[in-house]
Amino acid sequence: AHQWQGVLAEYRDHLPFTAQDTLLTLGEGGTPLVPAPAISEAVGAEVHIKVEGQNPTGSFKDRGMVSAMTRALNDGATTVVCASTGNTSASAAAYAARAGMTCVVLLPQGKIAAGKLAQAVVHGAQLVQVDGNFDDCLEIARKLHAEHPVELVNSVNPFRLQGQKTAAFEVCDALGRAPDVHVLPVGNAGNISAYWMGYREYHEAGITEATPAMWGFQAAGAAPFVAGHPITAPETVATAIRIGAPASWNLAVAARDDSGGLIDAVTDEQILDAQQRLAEDVGIFVEPASAASVAGLLQQAERGLVPAGATIAVTVTGNGLKDVEAALSRRDLTPTVLPVDLAAVVEAIGL
Ligand code: F0G
To answer: Fewest CB within a 10 Å sphere: which of 6, 104, 323, 333?
Structure first.
């Protein structure tokens, strides 16, 4: 059986690395595209879920991070920096550990899911918590990079999008064609830009016959693309996409418009409902930001805007275990404690 070599080796022909570059990998990519009958039925289309929470650090960020880190390592960098709502920092910390580099992460204080913070800590990153939001952190990270010898590994580093575009290749490889629609959450807007680049490149290479419409969804309290301009105080339960001034603004607008797609918003309640539905009806546990994609698709269906019978790929970006607090926030956790007694257990579970 073929042992997956990581996205850089698997898609080397489509990536800007040289024969001299040593490629890093933690086995990222090669994530499953899982059919979701319950969602397909609800929206009247053929829905496949790209489960990016199965990457090494539990999010899609590993695709872009292995690429940016490989470039940095081969260029002789010793320190990397990133701003993050949690997943980028978790990924940067892991790949920096692997590469033997120092990693500095700038985080919005109090707005990082505990699992993600733990990842940065265990991989030995230098944590800087800032009394501001992600946008403030990114501004500092950019200046650090401009004025000091540290490599910036946020998605403004072009190697990030190069790595992330491999997810689009995988979707096409798995389906044997490009989907009609690709749905994903939008925060800093790197991922929608990267997928669009990947789909275009496969099409231009003659591997696929078409490109999908890109459908992006933001949280209603953090929806600058819907507003049409950056916003100053983003707020949402989906902390991963709590972003008001997306860095890849122009690329995301191009992805939306050139693909004949859209970027819309969903409420926190829709996001948590979709998260629960994915967990209970599909069997996939994702973090809140990831569920914005499914919430958006369901919203489109309610509005009668899903093309009947279309092939739809939906990216769920991060693993639910990263943020158990958000997932449990609406659940009653009061335990039923019983004596060590079979009859009592049988009665309690209603058999
Ligand atoms: N989903 C998750 C789980 C994320 O962590 C992010 C971004 C997104 C979606 C949005 O992707 O920014 O490319 O539009 N997280 C970044 C971080 C900002 O710091 O981890 P995007």
So the answer is: 333
